[in-house]
Amino acid sequence: MKKIFCMFFFSLILIPLSSMDLTDAESSLADIFSSSIDSNEGRTVFRSMNIASGGRTEALGSAFVALCDDASFFDYNPAASSVLQESEIAVYHNAWISDSALETLALTRRNGKLGYGAQIKCFYVPFSEYNLYGERVAGNYYSETSATLNVSYNFMAGYTFKGLALGANGKIAWRSVPDYTDNQTDEIIQGSGLDQSALGLMADAGILLRFNALKFYQDREANLKIGLALNNFGLALTGFSSSITKDDDTPARISAGFSYAPFSRLRFTCEVRKPVLISDFSTQLKTSFALGSEIQLTKSFAFQCGFLLQGANPRFSMGSEADIKGIKMDVAYTLDLTSSANPVNHISLSAKIKFGDRGRAITMEKVDEYYIDGLKLYAEGYYNEAIMKWEEAIKTAERPPLSIRFEPAIQAKNAAINFNIQKTALENMYSVSMDENE
């Protein structure tokens, strides 16, 4: 019942917003942020690589480089696959501007400290050609399709310090341009579209650091995350029906951000992005900023809102996530003043299915059991037996599927060993003293 109420509540907000006329607001905001206009914008290809897949990331204003806690990480920080709690498959639909759309399918999995996954994205928009008399002579789709393979590894992973995750993506992308017609005969020119199509080869690299700071609740998950990523660095080639030449630069960028949860049900995210022209690093492109926040209203329902400043016109977004029988459904609404000359409202959806944690939770329960048994034995004076329990906890945690250092047991074991050494030394001193008195 709570899930139904939450979805109904969000719908009441969403429907009126989608029909709002905010032309005056757009004009005012454009004046305020006029200094953010980038005169070098539009000098890159495969711009769809910068479009959020949709759902929760869209609702958070795409401030995701540090949060990266679901399968959306592919477009933000490739290091995240090695720290995700569960294997996941996700489907995204983003109804973008001017009848264009973005479809995404992602799969990710984790084995201990190693994470890996794959993603396929397709951006498409109807392409219609008209002759001088206004007659339609050709119709098809312009599209940009990309495939991504990911691998990452979490170094120095432990119970207290969560580790330093490093990851990389390899990407291949294809821009498909339909054949166009001859202006005189209206006949389609075979191969004309192929000559303008392009092949892109790109790579990403990322770092993710997780730890606790200013944390006002009890939970094993780190509440502060810091992320840094290099995205879409590569090369694009075009002219495949005549002579292959280098196309414009790929949309490379450097992103940095943080995610902070002061309380268990509240999280803030922030991200800064610096676009880069690979062929001319001296050309300065405008930096963009993104902010997001998430409130976990119930165990199965969360609400997000976000803000993105990229150019002179900002973008506002809001959305929600509902967990329905193990399937996480996301819906996001965006008032996009960035991508169009007129205020554009678009909706994005996603569905994420989790396939379990491969036994990590059950193994963690065993580790806790060994640790607590050790504490009980230690309190009863069975020091050697307690050390054995803690050693078992340490070994179990170090083996897959956890593959972490369990510092509480390590510290307890070391303290017990030191106590035994001191105890033995005192007993020896007492024994020597008694012998001398005799």
Helix/strand class: alpha+beta
Query: Ends: how far apart?
Result: 82 Å
Q: Classify the beta-strand content into a percent band.
A: 35-45%
Main sheet: strands, sense, barrel = 14 strands, antiparallel, barrel
Structure description:
This protein is of the alpha+beta class and 438 residues long. It is 24% helix and 39% strand. It has 7 helices and 15 strands. A 14-stranded antiparallel β-barrel has the order 1-2-3-4-5-6-7-9-10-11-12-13-14-15. Strand 2 (101-111) and strand 3 (114-130) form a beta hairpin. Helix 5 runs antiparallel to helix 6 (383-398). Residues 7-23 have low confidence and may be disordered.
Defining key terms:
about 450 residues; alpha+beta; 14-stranded antiparallel barrel; 7 helices; 15 strands; about 25% helix; elongated
Task: Detail the topology: elements first, then pairings.
Layout lengths: L1 H17 L4 H10 L23 H4 L28 E8 L5 E11 L2 E17 L5 E20 L8 E13 L15 H5 L1 E14 L12 E15 L6 E2 L6 E11 L2 E10 L12 E11 L2 E9 L4 E11 L2 E10 L7 E11 L5 H20 L3 H16 L8 H31 L1
Antiparallel strand pairs: 1-2, 1-15, 2-3, 3-4, 4-5, 5-6, 6-7, 7-8, 7-9, 9-10, 10-11, 11-12, 12-13, 13-14, 14-15
Helix pairs in contact: 5-6, 6-7
